[in-house]
Amino acid sequence: MIMAVVGYVAFRPNNSAKNAEPSAPPAVAQTTDLLDRVTRFTSAFGVRGGYRTPTRAERDVLVEGVSALFGGNLEQARTRLAAVDYRVDTFTDGPGGRRYAEVADAASDSGPAARGWGRVYVDLGAPVRWSVQVPHPIADQDTERLGVAVLRGSPGGVMVLAGAHRKAAGGPDGGGAEDGEGDAAGDGSGSGGGGTGEADVAHRPDSVFHAVIAELTRRGLPGIQLHGFADSTVPGTGAVVSTGAGDAATADAARLAAGLAARGVRPCRAWSGSCRMSGRGNVQGRLAAELGTRFLHLELARSVRADPARRDETARAVTEVTAGWAGAPG
After folding, report:
1. Segment 10-21, tens digit of pLDDT
2. Per the record, which residues fall in region Disordered (predicted)?
3. At residue 209, does pLDDT exceed 60?
4. What pLDDT, on a 0 to 100 scale, did the predictor assign at position 22?
5. Alpha helices of 47-96 — where are they, by DSSP H?
6. How many CA atoms lie within 13 A of 190 on its CB side?
7. DSSP 8-state class, residue 179
8. CB neighbours (10 Å) of residue 164?
9. Which of 262, 283, 281 lies closest to 204, judged by CA?
């Protein structure tokens, strides 16, 4: 979320401590609320502006930084990420009790001049084992809240959170079902195969969001990606559970669908039947299919996402899957 000139400055050689500008030490919050941090960040998203496509060099540096963090090297991560004006803060989530690292833009997290590259949250209390991915916060309303609940549910999690509204940077209205139908709820939900903006990171392999998930995928770590649709798009269905373009996570998908059904959320099972919004064009899912890594694509009706009790029940169903992922890598 920084102007292009800032990206240039971040890559200037720094050969002398004498010439280096002093910088403030990373902020450390002892105890806070993960959900509050996330929703304060996403609440500033607008549908115009606030996104810049990163360069290959910027993506590479960010991946190097988060890779160090995934390996448990916090200081190396801080040093590398500072080269692209990102910071790493650590805090304990009061409600959930886990300690996390937050990888965030140090210069400008929001506003029309922001880069919109997003954030990464990493559980510091256990080895990295799995991820929850939120590509359309605000646009797919409350998926950011569900992502927090899922991250809290099992140890070893990473949450990759997009940094802009999917329509940001003047992109076309992209909400709707995979076949391009608009979202009748007007909340921008759906997999948006019909038209995507620059910030629709579920369909942008040149995004920071994709680069970070690609690193997790190459490590063989399973992930679940959260989306939303209008109730009128698939009447009578509360969720669409899919393995995306691959089939490595079929057993996980079956377990998730059973867990949702047991909690009153009626699923469509895309791996064994015909379902709209199955996410087969999702670029993170395509990479997972190519590498044989487990990937789940979960679409939820607006009524499920909007109701806190139903959202919590959905998170519990997802946690039954992520708890298994947390037990061993890959």
Report:
1. 333 344 333 444
2. 167-202
3. yes
4. 42
5. 56-70, 74-82
6. 30
7. T
8. 35
9. 283
